[in-house]
Specification:
It is a single chain. With 194 residues, this protein is mostly helical. The N and C termini lie far apart (50 Å). It has a single domain, classed as Four Helix Bundle (Hemerythrin (Met), subunit A). The protein contains seven helices and no strands. Helix 2 packs parallel to helix 7, helix 4 packs antiparallel against helix 5 and helix 4 runs antiparallel to helix 7. 82% of the residues lie in helices and 0% in strands.
Length: 194
């Protein structure tokens, strides 16, 4: 495809290519996490015995982390609204707040891992432990990637790289962040309530 044809496609497309690209990326992420979660469910339902998560995990800590990610989604919505309204200082501040909440989530998760492993709940101690660390570890890596994207967006917002018409980066990061938050809510439900 020539450059002219590509430009014509981008201009005539009802969906911006960046948005389409993000949705396609998120579709691949849905498949990735669906495979992990599906494997966990099969293992969990097929096991003759399974530990009670309330006895093994710090369910209260996981609930606090869930609340933190829900707050971060609210902050992300505020960042997008600020960008759409052309208030990029406010957008930057909300992106930084969202990143801060993401980092708080990660710090709590690392402390939780340390506490659990100190008590003998390590990745090799049981099938449940292996599943727990795999699911939450991959999720944590996605949160970390989101924090990097949020900080990049905050830098862009603060350096005048967005306009009220052209702020697709904030929208893309928002879609990704909400996805990561939704995955955590599903993980919390299946790990702690199932």
């Amino acid at each position: 495809m020539s450059q002219g044809a590509a430009a014509d496609f981008r201009e005539s497309s009802p969906v911006p290519t960046s948005r389409l690209g993000m949705w396609l990326f998120l579709a691949s992420e849905v498949m990735f996490f669906a495979a992990l979660i599906g494997s966990y469910v099969v293992l969990r339902l097929g096991a003759s015995s399974w530990p009670d998560p309330n006895e093994v995990l710090g369910v209260g800590v996981l609930a606090v982390n869930t609340f933190i990610l829900i707050l971060s989604s609210v902050s992300m919505v505020m960042a997008h609204d600020a960008a759409a309204g052309g208030d990029f200082r406010r957008c930057r501040n909300f992106l930084l707040g969202t990143a801060g909440l993401g980092l708080t989530f990660l710090v709590i998760k690392v402390l939780d891992y340390a506490h659990l492993s100190h008590g003998g709940f390590t990745i090799g101690s049981s099938l449940f432990a292996s599943c727990y660390y795999t699911l939450t570890g991959f999720h944590g890596l996605h949160v970390l990637a989101g924090v990097v994207a949020l900080l990049t967006g905050a830098w862009k917002a603060g350096s005048g790289r967005f306009t009220s018409e052209e702020h697709g980066y904030v929208e893309g990061v928002g879609l990704y962040w909400h996805f990561v938050d939704l995955v955590w809510i599903v993980l919390f439900a299946i790990l702690c309530l199932m």
